[in-house]
């Protein structure tokens, strides 16, 4: 009896492994209304006749002339005219690791390929941007764990899904619009899913597994506990595992920031935003790399970055933890003269040495 059970377990594991390998080596095409097997092969395959014969002989396709919308067809990548483009890591800063399967995490460098099933981890000051074939971007913030389950690999195919699993931390998604009504860019968090066609939005998971979504542009659908809530631009919502998403609320307005650069430093201040409990401040360099990220309680901020061009992003945070509308400002830090206190110190040190 035990041997039969072990045999069944082994067979299940082998089947799961085979399915994972098939998914990695195949393109998953979701059938749309009006699709036929011949049109599909003619559009995407190098050899349409070979493609049609092979897929028609496959038991997964009962009728090559009438396919049910929503059905998934697996097509070997080697048959395709357009070869898939991998997702890549860009704008890597600080501690960023990539974990492949159950292997130990390895440091990530710019240009690194990210495959299905890989997990990205960032340290307290680490960040990275993941770019996909259609130029959609996911900015992974510090102290975040993001698993890449599946992603769009073809520019000319509108309905290939991108599916991410945010285990901890925060991401900002800039999703290229698609020519399909399906919301095929999805982010999964504990018990919650956010889905879009094309937009810009933030998703964050708190330590107590609350999912916060804030929409910058377009519209996001947030689903949990068999209930879906549309969230328009300028609004945000909270969701928990087992509970329907909260009614969307208007995000706090962007702070009216005054930014000054001088004396090798950046200084920003703004009038308090009504309803704000705190503020989020992020500093990006000219290449879009996140150099500094912090949450502060007072409406003022100061930093001493190296000379160069920067962008400062400031948002107000309400009592729910939702971050408000974005205020983005350009800034230049020049090499400039040393501040008077530094010159006084250097001059005093020189005088002591002379004595």
TrEMBL record:
Q: Which UniProt keywords apply?
A: Signal
Domain spans labelled LysM: 27-75
UniProt superkingdom: Bacteria
Signal peptide from the UniProt entry = 1-20
Q: Does the keyword Signal apply?
A: yes
The molecule here is called FecR domain-containing protein
Q: Which species does this protein come from?
A: Alloalcanivorax xenomutans
